[in-house]
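Think of the structure tokens as a kind of shorthand, similar to the way a musician reads notation: each symbol stands for something richer, in this case the local conformation of the backbone. In the example below we present two proteins back to back. Begin with the first one, reading the sequence and then the tokens, and try to describe in your own words what changes along the chain.
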Amino acid sequence: MHKLSVLLFTAVAFFIFSGSPAFSDELNEPAAGYSESSLPMQDEAEPHYLDADEAFIPELEQNEQDVSVKFTIAPEYYLYQERFTITPINCEISDIIIPEGLYHDDEYMGPSHIYYDAVTVKLKVSRTDPFPKISVRYQGCTAGMCYPPITKKIAIDRLSVDETETAGPAGAAQKSGEDTDAHNADVGNGDNIEKIPGSDFTSLIDISSDSGSIYKMMGSSILFGLVAFFCFGVLLSLTPCMFPMYPIWSSIILGSRQKNVKTTAAYTFVYILGMAVAYMLAGFGIAYAGARFQMFLQQPAVLIIMSIIFLILAISMFGLFEMTLPGSWINRLQQFNDKQKGGTVTGVFLMGVISAVIASPCTTAPLAGALMFIMKDGDMVRGGAYLFVMGLGMGVPLAIIAVLGQKFLPKSGMWMKNIKVICGFIMLTIPLYLLRNYLSTEIITAIAILMSGSLICYLTLLVMKKQRGPFAIFTMTVTAAMAVSSLFMTPDEGRSGLFEQVKTLDELESVIRDNDVVIVDVRADWCASCKKYEDTTFADGNVIEYMSGYKNVYVDITEDNGPSKDIIEKYNSTITGAPTILIFRNHTLISSVNGYLPAGSFIARINSALKKERR
């Protein structure tokens, strides 16, 4: 039983860590061979992308204190719910209502909520000074391209003195945490919109997750998430603080009277149901809070704090310290629980609810981690469903005792502490997931190697009886060497070997002057198709070989006021959004490509533009 459990958890751990962003890259098959003479002379058919002010048209409506901003969205374009932020200028606002969007999952950007066709944002104005406005910031995309975040200042009517007095104290206005850019346009009813590239909220945009990530799968597939949380509940039930208590709980549930198997199973199910319902309600509540404060939860500082909390929770699973509710709370709940009568449906159900609240030292940390994960996701349906099935999973040993008897459960032992440690290793992956957009691939790879090697070493030592010391030293030495070497690797051949970064307009102009042909990749962290370019087109061997004879640079337009701002202003009419490819020949911009192209079409498009220029 001991060796079987170790092998089982080794497989689970391998599945968890193999879903790490560092190890989920898919191999890219090279396209068919290309030669310049075999490529078409004409331009490849490219999609036409609307300008941002054509794709997303705002209209202001105001009825005294009630203000609405309606966005008309072009077909096949969409706006992100998480990208909306509203800031008052010379006024006070409250009761901001941003409707719930449709759930959307992107291979590169991860789960989010979007609006098609139209969306209306509502708010109340409670006080106005001279020249009141609201600053609305939003971002949208379409297939193949994302637009930079857009900020608009929209003039609103001043409130009369009577209206201001009636409004009373203003509610808390939504804070964006950003300064309004000097280049924003003053607009009324959506006219004269100026596009502002970049965003201080890039962390909201770039919630990317590699396709192999277990966390992305839980976010995109509710069925997978249900199975994962059920298994998580089973693991928690096998920890040393929980497992030995199940026979005792079983006798308390049944009361003093002997019952047949059918009745015993029914009462046990009621107890498990009470426990699962308690967790479900917690899931609903925490997911609702997460949805309300989604923008706040995506801020880098908040993600760092959450990651630190997860690290502390994971460390507690290794036995360094224990986390429980305050003793006074537990005593009061226990006193109430003792008053319930075993053998009655109501009493058994309430006992299940209370047992879920009185978390044992072994389960407090992982339960807190599960709640934080659900808060980060912000989906009430998934949040409630996930914790409900987790509660069912925690009741599996009780169900076995009720139906088959205690003899069918394994005996208590050290294997329960091992499961607790394995849960700690699993929890260590969550900070890596939360901070994946702020850590380089090399660092993520190094951390993942260290975690995987440590877990493999731990699990193997559980099985080995001889030569444990030398094996542990050898394993950790190899793991450390692999982790250190990964810091010096260049896994992204397309980005590191094909392109060099230019940060300022002076740098770009210098490159253009010194080279006959320059290919410029305009990209941003909030751009899903940019990531697709890196993983596919720019990693294709034929593309690398074809472009090796040219000077290839990239410009990062992620930040509003970054050094690339002057580049965007100079080529504003060409750079509709990201990704955009600029093609220079003889110091002149001769063509551009908006949106994503696969390897073959990309080479053909570049070749066609250059050959046209030669004629």
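Once you have a description of the first chain, move to the second and do the same.
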Amino acid sequence: MRKISDEQINIEAKSGYKPLTIDSGIGLLPFSELGDREFELLCYLLVKNEIGEGKHENVTSISLMQGVSERGRDCSLYNDGVVSGLIQCKKLQGRISRPQALREIIKFLLFSIIDNNLLPKPDAFEYKLYLSNDLAETTNILIHSYPTEIEKEIQSKTIEKYTKDVVSEYESFKKFENNEPINKVIDLLRKIKVTASNATDLTLRVHKYESLLSLFFNVKTVIDLESADRVVRNALDDYGLKYLTDEDLKKLQNRIAHTKEENRINLGFVDFFGYNKEFFKSLNGESFKEIMEAVASVTTLLDQYLLDFISSKINELIIEKITMELLNQGKIHPFSVGVAAPYLIQRLSLKVLSKKIPKALATQFYKEASQPKMELINSIAIQLFDASERVMNGDLSHLVGTPEDIEFKKRIYAHIHVNFKNIEDAKVTFAKDIKTIIPTLDVIETMINDLLQEERTVVIKDASFLDNEGEMKQLAKTLNMIEPK
């Protein structure tokens, strides 16, 4: 087996192309823009760091392959020196299909039949699929219900067909022509464990290691806000001061109108007035970075609380408009209520987050939230059906928490599945109920939208307002207005 040294890994990682990513704490990292080798290196270093922190059960070390013809695996995983798994990295622009995933697994198993050192203990072996994009719906079902789904593929002769396809496709398997080891492949498929990590999962994990983030991506902090200076100047140039009747703009104009040109610093997402350019030149890299991070943290914190506020309002209005007025009146089934919260969160959170990155990237990063209404509803419904079908079939592996928590969740599922005999009953009921629910979802969305604005600006001032009686009175009035009741 050809392993690659840590020194060579560092050289390769530093020499690759670094895609642009926005350091907003939200959105997916652009894994698909990495080169094939860079994606493999990233996955290797990520898992190596996690192993060091004890995050991978039954894995004590990892080795990266050379990257060419490595017999169906990019990384080998070991438990005390014994092979216990592998990572196969797939950098794709689209979602990996079920046939693609099965053929990849079968390819490795054929190599392991030729060399059993690749898979010494099938019952204690985990095949990990790491994806730059995501799983297709049918692939997702395969991964999350693997023992059941793989048996379906075996019984339908699909595994037999795919094995023959893979044997005929690769020269390495020429010895198997007309004598494919179907039974051996099936036996191994039944024994191994198969899991997958998509772009969402990998993004969350990579963000925990800043060194990895900066090694593979060109990280930029961009907040798309117009500067206060530009707003005021445009208003004055276009209409003249006599038309500027907004009191807040007047106050802002008065603060910055007499600021000298050399005391104006424009940095895109933040403008400084009253600080000389020479002062900013004197700041070293770390000091400048500290100031930028402090400024960005203000809007980030506000956005976090704004999202919490939206979530709270969504729950409040769902209870009022859907639970009380529809569910309790017998107009819809409990199961159908489950679409409301994820649908509204997706639709409304986009209004808060879209201006955190350029428009060209917003749609790409928030694909689900940018979907037309019915497409979003259908995608959420698929997830609801999948989770419910697993519970109906007795598969509770996706339920997490203490035994008491799991028992509580089982009771919840029993309640929302009342009168359902199978998943088809749920689908029929949902198709009927959604026609009743959509108008109410529109009402809730409009009500919360009225509380939000996409363009948001924060103006941080000095303490001179303490010497201004008018501003002090306005402060008292504002505090009284926003005081919780």
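Compare your description with these statements about the second chain. The first strand starts at residue 20 and ends at 22.
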